[in-house]
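Good day; I would like, with your permission, to put a structural problem before you. A protein sequence and the structure tokens that stand for its backbone fold form the material at issue. The record follows directly beneath this note:
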Amino acid sequence: MADYLISGGTRYVPEDRLTAQQLFASAHSLTYNDFLILPGFIDFITDKVDLSSALTWKIMLKMPLISSPMDPVTEADMAIPMVKKFEQGFIVDPVVLSPSDAVGDVLEAKVWHGFSGIPITETGTMGSKLVGIVTFQDTDVLAEKDHTTLLSEVMTPRTELVVAPAGVMLKEANEILQCSKKGRLPAVSDCDELVAIMAHYPVASTESHEQPRCGAAVGTHEDDKYRLDLLTQVGINVTVLDSSQGSSVYQITMVHYIKQKYPHFQVTGGNMVTAAQAKNLIDADMEGLGVGMGCSSICITQGVMACGQPQGTAAEYDWHFGVPIIADGSIQTVGHMVKALAHEASTVMMGSLLAATMEVPSEYFFSDGVWLKKYQGMDSLDAMEKSSSSQKQYFMEGDKVKIAQGISSSIQDKGSIQKFVPYLILSVLWSMMYSGELKCEKRTTLAQIEGGEKQLY
């Protein structure tokens, strides 16, 4: 930081607070709310921030966000758009504008969706005649006063576009896209009507043959081996051994089984919060670790079982083993995401953040003027009564009396992840730009109140 001080006459440069190692050297464990990252010197823009992160030693993701493998969060409707908004490589419901829309509409779409390559049709809808396309290059040179300029004046016209016929095969479409050196390939009907668009999707994590990466969770019981066989047949890349206490003979036995039958298959597991737990799982050939116990918004393990650790500390020290860390739990805000990633977590798992989006399986209900969705912990009494998988996960399938380690609650509507996840990504990019080099400061209770949301009425 001293290298960037403006005043050349300054002789004394005070040391700015604590490094991450100094912060967590305290005997007291910390939550994400117990500290802040100090701002640094900005000499780059958000476009220069790279969010690529390791899920395992061999698998990289283009964004460090994972949806939780909980029944109330991730089923097919959540998993598919989290991979990418494609059908056979084509976006079939893209954002579409008309020539009479303005440059400001394109910029707003970029804020919400994270991209600005938008097809322009006569009516601004799919199935209408394609008349052009607007990309970042078309709008980047315009000043703020030009935001009212009509798209008809700045778009790349249809005569200059490379298109593919409707029904084109994915391989052929990829070849056309690569030869054209364009970022977008519209597919049109015989009447030049837009039916789909193919794009180089910026945050889709794929294999070398362009197959999207996909993972699935399994347990440690005998019938999970059959589930694993079925998952490998459909081409998943990685599995998460999903257990409340990962450092167990059951999980280690399951890792050994997977590695013996599918030696090239990537396995992550947990959860764990101590160095001894981490070492047990790494020695068993685990390629990624889930960190967190009793710290999520609907988990009460720390109170009921007297086990766990505050998530800030848990997610920080396990990076010393060199294995990618999944911060699982206590991620309630973008700030929590940034703190987890800044303190060596490779990815963050989102449960409550996604639990009230349109794609989760629960139904909306209306209460006190707001739309809500029910959100229940996998170890809540409600979940265990409905699903045997919840009982198995917490080793309670044979017990007559169920001990709840979670609760049921409600969360306010967050809309679709098609808008919410791009918002999260953009927010993390901006936070990374603000922080610069990593220096931290502990926060008192009053400081947490000062920095939190204020009631202004």
In short: The chain has two domains: 46-84+207-445, 90-199. The radius of gyration is 24 Å. The chain has a mean pLDDT of 81. Residues 90-199 form a domain with the CBS-domain fold (CATH 3.10.580.10).
